[in-house]
């Protein structure tokens, strides 16, 4: 099912959905810069500090598939509006939190309603822009928001923390929600999947618990990869996800139809999206720590320090969007991760006495260029050939890949940082050198994962330009790969 809307109306629809994407993406990072202030005011432990971020991305990622199916069956606009209301209420609760526990609960509730909101928005985009040049443009805009939202969150969080309070990093969402609800009421059109629709609750339970166990196991890796609890939760997570796959292969109305991810091109896009999420959410946290702790930047300046990457993305994306029909998506998906890896590799050489211009700025330029090349075709590839009935599930998988990648990446990178910092301290390094040694290890690990993303593109993003970039509805529903 696709909409036939006047062109102007469609672009207003895109504006509303892009605002939604911005809110969902920036909320994974907007509190990052505020964490030191929030930790001090609420008396958070270091473990609780990490869970302020992890609670959001974990609940978000774990429930996205169910949220996608609810959007398909219950109605995409209806899910969008309810998700907006709940997200705004959870944000207000978090902004008024008086304890660390309340803040973590509020972040989890934000993730819950974001899991309903995000797939509804992306599936509405999919059915509104079914094919052709307008579809490429719409998904490029979504890609820009996805890529710059994290940096915008850091900038906005820095400004709000410095001039008001860390609490406004959550309360500001209420403003976005009001605008989004007005826009949604005016411009969005209801759609839902046809046919017999039943919910796969056992699938929802096993994937939620499986992903939760997996992420929690990775978070325990800071205590040691050989720790019995670490191994136990990781093994339990893998077993539950295996059960989930078995359930999905047998039920009539699966939460995640395996045809969505078994397609080679889409499967490759989902894997790359997971890796990008781990870098954007996991690695950028430590860059922010470097700015504030080692370089001594104020919150606003630390946010501004990330703008270079955002500016590069905004410059490069329109250029690559115009070139996309000519060069095709495959070359961008191969080269983009390599540029990003180069930028992260440069960051791995930071030192306590280095400065931003020589050690960080060149890396951010490379990272921004690489991410721009990935964002232009990525979501389009992830949704190519998806039937309207599966739009919500496929859209949820796109978002889930980013959030689960981010939560796993944050946990793994935290373990890598802790081990490297511990080894540095044991060797007698000064405190700031201990920090930068830990950050360097995180950036090097991130670079390696981006190289892996390029190799995935080489192996899995295959097909002609007409297959990978459908120009009509008939091509759009064809099998790729």
UniProtKB/TrEMBL annotation:
Q: Name one Pfam family in it.
A: MFS_1
Membrane-protein topology: Multi-pass membrane protein
* Entry keywords, A to Z: Cell membrane, Membrane, Transmembrane, Transmembrane helix, Transport
Give the source species.
Answer: Microbacterium memoriense
Cell compartments where the protein resides: Cell membrane
List the transmembrane segments.
12-38, 50-68, 80-97, 109-130, 137-159, 165-187, 199-218, 230-247, 268-289, 301-324, 331-350, 356-378, 398-418, 438-461
- Report the main location listed first in the record: membrane
**What sequence ranges are listed for the domain Major facilitator superfamily (MFS) profile?**
13-465
InterPro entries in the cross-refs: MFS, MFS_dom, MFS_trans_sf, Sugar_transporter_CS
Protein name stated in the entry: MFS transporter
